[in-house]
Design a protein that fits this description.
Length: 378
Amino acid sequence: MRVLGLMSGTSVDGIDAVLVEFKGHPSKPKWKILNTGSYKYSSSIRDKIIKVGQGLKINSKDWFELAEEITESNAAAARICDPDSIAEVVGCHGQTVFHRSVKNSERGGSLQILLGPLLANILDKIVIYDFRSRDIASGGHGAPLVPLVDESLVGRIYGWRGILNLGGIANLTIIPPKTGIDKISKCLGWDCGPANSLIDLVMQESTNSFSTFDQNGLLASRGRPKLSIIEKWLKEPFFHLEPPRSTGREQFGSQDLHNRQKELGDLSKEDLLSTLTTFTASIIAQDLDKLVRVKKIQLVELLVAGGGIGNLFLMGQLQRKCRGVHVRNINEIGIPPQFREALVFATLSWWHLLGNKVNPKFITGANKSMVYGLRVDP
């Protein structure tokens, strides 16, 4: 079956699209990427998405028009990736504008903006969307969903394998080995904390949105990180919550950045970026250290995906801090790092049509197996 996956993450750069052909059993499919493509949000849409996600109040007309623009942007990405319209179904994540983690007895929540029926009619395709709400209704965080698919697409090796996504938020997938005593273990996954969200906000605010990210980590590489402050930040309660654990720009957005800037005092932009980038790598290293200390899980390798893979300073910090782990680009096993999440939502959409249920207990915390997504026909 040919499936088109569409994904826009917390970095809000635009929409990544991947056209995939799936065959075989859903737990261990044969799959082939037929095409990829991207559609960049206009600066005005991107700015509005980020601001409403940070609490900007807009009227109902503006909300609806934003939903229309996001839907039409997804349709444009679909046409770029699948110009001959050969996909049999489209899986579309929509644009996250709000995420609330499960806390004590408080239910989680997550809002993705997309007009699914409109997209289905524009493309004249079956559309699978709204992937998170059923998980949340079942007591889960609704995130991260990527680890639910990773084991099927990436597979097991002769040791514990990690996959790290460096989007706006960093999340980890931990895949058990295929042999030995640990082969009966379950796949794990959680959100680590900020990856690019704070770094990108510094660039946007300091350049009046002319630059939206630190190209190659060049500015960060020219600065000196404030290691004592980073050590203090690593003690914050969120980073010591046991999985399931999820987060978003609501926690690591503009207000969080301004609080950290205030604590750092008067720093050059280079020092600020160096500190925030090193902080991201340190959060991930701390999670992996805890994995060894508490669960006795030592990774053999860490495959890295997402936009942050282009930040050479961040990748260098990861390699230095994640000692004993082979850190490498997920592209080395045939998955383009930019399109990994779009590939995941294509897979979840294929699974939806097959009626394939997933048990998310050890990742999102939901209390039952389920088929992810909702279907709408044109």
